[in-house]
């Protein structure tokens, strides 16, 4: 024993930085020690220590010492023998261990009876924990056997027991909601418990039991709002539930739910008042009138002596200020006093709120105020400041010099990754939004990467420099910063730097010789990736060939990476001498950018769309490849979003997805049979598009669609031979055999059904179905690359009042990706140029330039119209024709 | 023996702690039997089917017993094996009025005896032919032959009829078990 302590001491000295005695646990030795559990009499102290180790190990999955199922079960059974000890501490440890091991070990129900005895026993301090442990090991099949005990515990007069039973029941709801629902009488009794915590927990469980029934929830809120609950927690819970109802049902402020929340503003408990106020300001339906009463309450809190209240109030006001700056202006005087609050968190929030509500003149003063204590606040709040600056820049673009300098100063100071990332994101967004701030912003970023420890930030900045740098007035000055990276940094950063250098070389004739020298030096780099990139770019740039540079340096491949991987894998499996055709890889769609409705405090604009989209197209191609008739079609070029072809209330709900191939279109019809007494067999959707030259080649019927079930049928259509006229509408009729069936069993009543049909809406095939959006980072380079061979130019007059609307319409008709941020029309301009890029069916690049100018037609100069000069270039002639037809 | 006991007391061993395992089919009266051994004021009238196991303490003849009252329901019987290794004695309770299931009890007994943790050690087993008050219950001899106890030669065992509700015969069996455990422990010591 003594020696082991000494050993521990020694270890501690070695790793003096960590005082954690469990850091170096080894699974084998802990399991060995766990044999102590089998000894009689029980060595309490030692067993507690061992259990602590086991729990620690289970909760540190990164230690890599996870218990296996057999090991855990063995240890668990050994541990059950410790129930013979009456030691309080040990018993509590056992409860904890049971809970932790319940998911790892087998047959944990062995302790059921021991726990039920503890939960009904005399030792009060054991009862609550025993209930929690018991509920953790109880599965659906065991629920019956604990039911009686749980019912008793819920109405127990001891608050800790009742609370434990109620909260555990919430967890049990997941396994056996039916059983828990039977306890509703007991739960209702517990809501009337005198203890505020029991009341809160009981209300929570009652809500869970009734959750699916909106009407019951409504009644519940009304009932308890009148009943006068003692617990402020319960009130807060009711307020949240009411707010959910209002938001989900789209109710207005005239609903009784809103009246209840409003009445809570006059509650005597501060917590309830705050909850009501913060709920009101976040309601969707709120109007300035309701807002002002909530803001008034928050204003009172601002001058409270309690820091917690001040903090809560100012934090909520900060959020309100984004959406309704006018409503918060009333509090400005009070907020000013908080700027000097000794609690820096409160001060930061006050200042950032003022920044949002204030005018341009006040910005300088407030920024000075913040910088005076910036070093005293935590990273998290610094991020709040950064976000406030970001929204300021959008509001007052002219203030960018002050703000940019401020950001640069922040960037120089110490800070964690998240904080630095927020600053870099802000600077990048300013650089992209505001052309005047570009050079200053890039200079600050260059300075930052000189001493940047975060690889991901450095690579991002290098990528940005490569894209934006060549277009500045003096591109040469960035070269030094970038080449320094090649000399000084780790491999990923070096590789990014090499790519950035190559872009400068491709874009500028003057710099090319210098860049070539730099690249040649880098071809001796020790890292494979860096060396490969340098060699590749060096060879490319040596030719000084514009189209080549555009295709391989300035604009990258636009294929879907996951599909490329899949196809390459398949290619390597085949024994073929044919070269791999990159054209066969589906083009990756540009993720649809979510409209930034409001710049929120937490700026987490995550491109969540791209992942699911990719997965979606892969699943489609897997589904279609199963059908033999579609095997020869090749890869899917594009799958459209589903379109409804029926009203939502009719018997059969039909949605259509268009899968476009290079010469065919497969229409996938997902049919949902909403009737519960009929089943459909041999379902097809007949299509007719002969007028437009579409030819139906094959129907793949859906054999059977059961009641309340969904099935898919496919129709294969060949595109018209005239490759320039590929749009039109196809009439659809669903044909099927109906069989009546018994609603209860779903079995058909008779053998023979009868044929029937159902007319659907027409399916439109539009230009955008043939085009996949593609983002060209350097649009003009691609424009030159394609050349004027298949160019088509025309001038149109469009009866559209504003440039914004015109831009939006053209993008949606053509289904192409706006490049160079040309989809944003600067305010007050009378003309605009829109640059679009896309890939036409078959893998042909298409680029569109649309120069628009406001102004009337020659015949009627006063009319609101736009004159547009449209130029289309493509590697394929028919693509040009088709795209042009989109405007007409 | 008495001399030896006082000798141990004098040495300061006090009461020796031993573990016993209480097994048998469901509804044979294991929990009731242990309930009877509790102090009068903590006894209960209501015995629910045990799920898993329960722990009971009682004292007999200078030994402090910790009894693992195992659940007899068929799906939990496999869990008995986890406790064989650390046990000093076994109490096997049989419902002597349930003549059909006595064969199941025999089966379970065979399994128990052939378990490696049991077969290699000399563990005393006491059998309670419980529910002797029921009219056409088997006698202890009848139970013994139904279980095939004659074939058990490498263990010391004892059988007695009992009525766990009233307590008749219980003390008798437990006393035999105490002395058997004591002698087996002494044997192991030597």
Automatic annotation (TrEMBL), chain A:
It comes from the Eukaryota. Gene3D superfamilies: Coatomer, gamma subunit, appendage domain, Leucine-rich Repeat Variant, TATA-Binding Protein. One of its GO terms (biological process) is intracellular protein transport. Residues 619-766 form the Coatomer gamma subunit appendage Ig-like subdomain domain. GO terms for molecular function: structural molecule activity. Residues 768-887 form the Coatomer subunit gamma C-terminal domain. GO terms for cellular component: COPI vesicle coat; endoplasmic reticulum; endoplasmic reticulum-Golgi intermediate compartment; Golgi membrane. Keywords: Cytoplasm, Cytoplasmic vesicle, ER-Golgi transport, Golgi apparatus, Membrane, Protein transport, Repeat, Transport. Residues 1-14 have a biased composition (Basic and acidic residues). The keyword Cytoplasm applies. This is Coatomer subunit gamma. Oligomeric complex that consists of at least the alpha, beta, beta', gamma, delta, epsilon and zeta subunits. Residues 1-25 are annotated as: Disordered. The coatomer is a cytosolic protein complex that binds to dilysine motifs and reversibly associates with Golgi non-clathrin-coated vesicles, which further mediate biosynthetic protein transport from the ER, via the Golgi up to the trans Golgi network. Coatomer complex is required for budding from Golgi membranes, and is essential for the retrograde Golgi-to-ER transport of dilysine-tagged proteins. It is a peripheral membrane protein.
Automatic annotation (TrEMBL), chain B:
It comes from the Eukaryota. It is found in: Cell projection, Cilium membrane; Cytoplasm, Cytoskeleton, Cilium axoneme; Cytoplasm, Cytoskeleton, Cilium basal body. Keywords: Cell membrane, Cell projection, Cilium biogenesis/degradation, Cytoplasm, Cytoskeleton, GTP-binding, Lipoprotein, Magnesium, Membrane, Metal-binding, Myristate, Nucleotide-binding. Mg(2+) binds at residues 31, 50. GTP binds at residues 24-31, 72, 130-133. GO terms for cellular component: axoneme; ciliary membrane. One of its GO terms (molecular function) is GTPase activity. PROSITE patterns: ARF (PS51417). Its main location: membrane. One of its GO terms (biological process) is cell projection organization. It is a peripheral membrane protein. Belongs to the small GTPase superfamily. Arf family. This is ADP-ribosylation factor-like protein 6.
